[in-house]
Amino acid sequence: MIDQKIIDNIPSALKQLPIWTFTNTDYDPKTDKNKKIPMDPVQLDLGVHRGIASTDNLLTFDTLLKVRHVPKDWLPAFHLDAQHNGWLMVDVEPTGMTENNPFLRYQYEYVEASRHGGLHGLIHLDIDSDILQKTAIKMHDYETECLINNHFVTLTGFTPSELYQPTLDFISAIPYIESSMQANLEVDDNLVNASLNDVASLSPKAQELFDELNLSPINRPKGVDISEWEFNTLAKHYKQLNRYHHRLFFELSDDDKVAVLYQAALETLPPRKKHHNMFHDSTHNDQVNYLFYTVRRIVESSH
C-alpha cells in the first residue's frame, strides 16, 4: 500500500508519465542491508518478482496503484528521464543537512525525507540547459547531488526535517548547478581511463565465461534512444551470459557476473562520453562510472 501522503502530494503531471514501478526493499542478510532493486511492475501484477529489464514495462502512477501482489513494505519508485520530460531530483545526503546548505531553502514540487535522514526534492525544469542531458551532477560543497537521467528514485513519504525552510525559487540555483557541472567534467584523463578499464577485473572462471560469449561490436539502429538501447542490449547480453553459465557447471558470484557483463559492454557498445560520468551508487556507497552502474543494476535486479 502506497503511503497516502505520496498519493496526495505527487504532482499530477508526474503521475501521468509512464515512469513508475516499485522498489524491492526486503532485508538482505548477505549485505545486512535492505535491498534497493527496481522491480518489473507488469511481472509483479502476475505474482512474479523480477527486476526491471526494460523501461517499456514502467507504468503511470494511477496504473501502478492497481498492481496486485505488492509486498507490504515495498516502496513506489520512478525512473528519471529529464532530457525528455524535465523532471529531476535533488538528493541531499544526511551529512548535507546543515543550515548553510542552500538546497534546503529552495521550493520543490514534492519534498520528503530520505530513508537515511537526508532530503529528496523533486523539481520540473523547463529550460534550455545542458544540465538536462547529464546523468547526475554533484554539488560537493553541500553534500548534495542532482539526479537527472537513467536513475531510479525510491520515495518514502517521510516528513522532511525542520531544517528544510523553503523561501527561494529553484531557478536561482541553476547558475551554481551549471558551474558544478563544469567542475564535474574537469576530471583527470588518467582517472577517467582507469574508471573504465580497471574497475572490474575478471577471475579465471569469469574469463572462461566471457570467452564463451564470443561477443563482437554492434551498432545502434537509427532513431532509437541511445540510453534505452544500451540498457536493452546489455540485458540481452546478460540473458546470454546466464545461458552459458548454466552449461559451464560452476558458480559465479554477482561480482563475477558484473565483471563479465562490464567487459562485454566495453567490447560491444560504441564508446561515448557519458560512460565516463562518475556518481555515487547509494546501494553500495561507492563511486562508479555510468557504464559500470548500469551493468551492476542489470545483474542485481535479476534476483
Could you explain how this protein is built, in words?
There is one protein chain. This protein has 303 residues and is α+β, with helices and mostly antiparallel strands. The protein has two domains: 4-185, no CATH class; 189-300, no CATH class. Helix content is 34%, strand content 18%. It has helices at residues 4-9, 12-15, 41-45, 61-64, 82-85, 174-185, 189-197, 204-213, 226-248, 254-268, 290-300; strands at 20-24, 27-28, 33-34, 37-38, 75-81, 87-92, 110-113, 119-124, 136-139, 144-147, 149-154, 278-281, 286-289. Strands 7-8-6-10-9 form a five-stranded antiparallel beta sheet. Strand 7 (110-113) and strand 8 form a beta hairpin. Helix 8 packs across helix 10 (254-268). The radius of gyration is 20 Å and the shape is globular. The chain starts with a helix and ends with a helix. The relative contact order is 0.13. Residues 186-200 have low confidence and may be disordered.
Give the SSE layout.
Elements: H1 4-9, H2 12-15, E1 20-24, E2 27-28, E3 33-34, E4 37-38, H3 41-45, H4 61-64, E5 75-81, H5 82-85, E6 87-92, E7 110-113, E8 119-124, E9 136-139, E10 144-147, E11 149-154, H6 174-185, H7 189-197, H8 204-213, H9 226-248, H10 254-268, E12 278-281, E13 286-289, H11 290-300
Helix tally?
11
Strand order within the widest beta sheet: 7-8-6-10-9
Beta percentage is 15-25%
- Tell me, briefly, the overall form: globular
| Low-confidence runs of at least 5 consecutive residues | 186-200
Helix content: 25-40%
The end-to-end distance, rounded to whole angstroms, is: 22 Å
Number of domains: 2
Order of helices and strands: HHEEEEHHEHEEEEEEHHHHHEEH
Tell me the radius of gyration: 20 Å
How many beta-strand segments? 13
How would you classify the helix and strand content by structural class? alpha+beta
Describe the biggest sheet? 5 strands, antiparallel
Q: Could you report the average pLDDT, rounded to the nearest whole number?
A: 85
